[in-house]
Amino acid sequence: MEDILQHVMEFARTAHGDQRRKFVDEPYINHPVRVMRICREYSGDILLLSAALLHDVLEDTETKREAVSDFLQSVMSPAEANRTLLLVLELTDIYTKKNYPRLNRRQRKQKEATRLSLAESDSQTIKYADIIDNSLDVAKAETDFVLVYLKECAALLKQMDKGHPELRKRAMETVAQCIAEQKQM
Asked: In the chain, what are the domain boundaries?
């Protein structure tokens, strides 16, 4: 199991390359690693943990679906690779500004929330961990965007209720705490 996760982490690290996090100056790969570690507190499922490491690869890099699929099939059985890829695909935003330029951010986020509310439990579990890590990072920024983002996360968590219940509760508490801290500033 650890060998597979190490290979997946290296693939994600290579895919993200020199990317840096937007609100904290650190290598981008640190984020998916933290998301995977949060997930690991609630699940030992290698496919879920692998998808956590890869959750931003299709959305935030030039890496194509076929490359992710080929890589996964080199380290997992075809069925496991397909399952992992499905989770990554469910976590990849569809309603982006590039794909839907006529929709404003609020409309795109509402459509994503509806889409993610239909995602399966493992995808939602990973998204909860993603929200926790992103919220903690974004909350450190000094911009008006922080409250907008945190409120989007809170709305998303209200709709996504199929994932790990304890992790969902933790995500909701994290977002609520970040919002409260922002309002005190």
From this structure: 2-184
